[in-house]
């Protein structure tokens, strides 16, 4: 007599049409088909979001696969029948209720098929030769049948992850380039208008740049980030064109003035001073490479400040490695934020030069959370004058916000 293959679950568990469909798929398995069980498991792990299973459920599937004695899944002996106690031990001590819930999710996702015995126990009955005649437990046949599907899903997820990484890298590079080119344009007084066209000044360029950056969501898919990357790339090209055009015009005017000087200096009667001397005290030496400014007294470590306010680094020409670089970069950022000279002087008087610069870096980091950077700095100045403000809590809040963003990303 041929043994009857169980179709319905034991006890109060209900049978759904999805379960019937999964069982029908399992029946299409070719006996000669061979699948590497850990290879298909890795594909399922990669595509878990597409398949609809959690990491804890995958831990249970990992434990189930460990009860299959062979690495290859093939033939008819694809039913594993561990007890809940054994399965819980291999699933890192998972609680029985949690184990049952994740087993049900694996069944619902079509990764395994439940083959329950008449009394709900899992076991195998052997014939006289010692071969397994019938087994009751969990059928791994769907893994063999759907192996190509899982591998295709894993490849799609991997390709999407690669594309997302590339677009994020593109955004990062564009942000760095634009910020540093804007800083160079301001320091070198490069005009932003050409033939009466273009933005009025570098503040407007910076406002346009920040408007694009602030639209970047904390967690986003490639389709959302790609248009932003395109906008940043276009803006980077435009800013670079401004700088290159200015360099060409400077070179042209420099060549013309050099020609004029050559004509003027061709007079043999003129006195040419080849080298000018500057009076200096005897024994005085010129310091070619002054040492970097040390950490100001009463301030916080520079590494902590950059951890709390990483956006300030985008505006540094060669990075920020000491306090001199930090102060120079905040001097570039301050007018971009719209902080007036009077507000800056009051902040320096109330907080000190370094603390005021740290406050500017923190205001830049807060971005759209602050409507008016100048007004916000004046409010901090008022609190500092009343001994009601300290820069430390602001830095710790920014560091905590970045850590939370990393966890949710």
TrEMBL record:
Organism of provenance: Candidatus Rhodoblastus alkanivorans
Protein name, as recorded: Replication initiation protein RepC
Domain Plasmid replication protein C N-terminal: 13-185
Annotated CDD domains: HTH_ARSR
Matches recorded under Pfam families: RP-C, RP-C_C
Domain (Plasmid replication protein C C-terminal): residue spans on this chain: 301-399
Domain of life, source organism: Bacteria
């Amino acid at each position: 007599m041929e043994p009857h293959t169980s179709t319905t679950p034991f006890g109060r568990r209900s049978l759904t049409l999805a379960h019937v469909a999964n069982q029908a798929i399992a029946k299409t398995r070719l006996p000669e088909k061979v699948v590497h069980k850990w290879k298909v498991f890795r594909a399922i792990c990669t595509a878990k979001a597409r398949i609809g299973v959690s990491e804890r459920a995958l831990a249970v599937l990992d434990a189930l696969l460990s009860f299959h004695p062979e690495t290859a899944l093939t033939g008819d002996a694809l039913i594993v029948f561990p007890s809940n106690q054994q399965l819980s031990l291999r699933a890192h001590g998972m609680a029985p209720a949690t184990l049952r819930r994740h087993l049900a999710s694996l069944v619902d996702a079509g990764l395994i098929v439940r083959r329950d015995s008449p009394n709900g126990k899992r076991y195998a009955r052997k014939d006289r030769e010692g071969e397994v005649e019938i087994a009751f437990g969990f059928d791994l046949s769907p893994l063999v049948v759907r192996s190509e599907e899982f591998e295709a899903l894993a490849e799609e997820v991997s390709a999407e992850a690669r594309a997302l990484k590339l677009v994020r890298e593109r955004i990062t590079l564009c942000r760095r380039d634009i910020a540093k080119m804007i800083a160079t344009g301001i320091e070198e007084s490069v005009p932003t208008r050409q033939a009466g066209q273009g933005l009025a000044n570098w503040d407007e360029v910076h406002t346009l740049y920040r408007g694009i950056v602030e639209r970047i969501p904390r967690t986003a898919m490639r389709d959302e980030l790609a248009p932003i990357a395109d906008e940043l790339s276009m803006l980077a090209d435009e800013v670079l064109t401004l700088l290159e055009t200015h360099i060409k015009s400077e070179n042209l005017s420099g060549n013309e003035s050099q020609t004029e000087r050559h004509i003027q200096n061709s007079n043999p009667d003129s006195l040419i001073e080849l080298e000018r001397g500057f009076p200096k005290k005897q024994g005085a030496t010129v310091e070619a490479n002054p040492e970097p400014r040390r950490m100001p007294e009463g301030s916080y470590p520079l590494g902590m400040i950059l951890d709390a306010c990483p956006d300030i680094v985008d505006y540094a020409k060669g990075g920020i490695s000491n306090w001199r670089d930090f102060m120079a970069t905040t001097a570039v950022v301050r007018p971009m934020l719209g902080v007036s000279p009077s507000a800056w002087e009051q902040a320096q008087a109330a907080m000190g030069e370094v603390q005021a610069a740290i406050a500017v870096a923190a205001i830049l980091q807060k971005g759209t959370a602050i409507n008016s950077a100048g007004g916000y700095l004046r409010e901090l100045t008022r609190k500092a004058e009343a001994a009601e403000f300290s820069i430390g809590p602001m830095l710790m809040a920014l560091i905590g916000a970045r850590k939370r963003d990393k966890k949710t990303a």
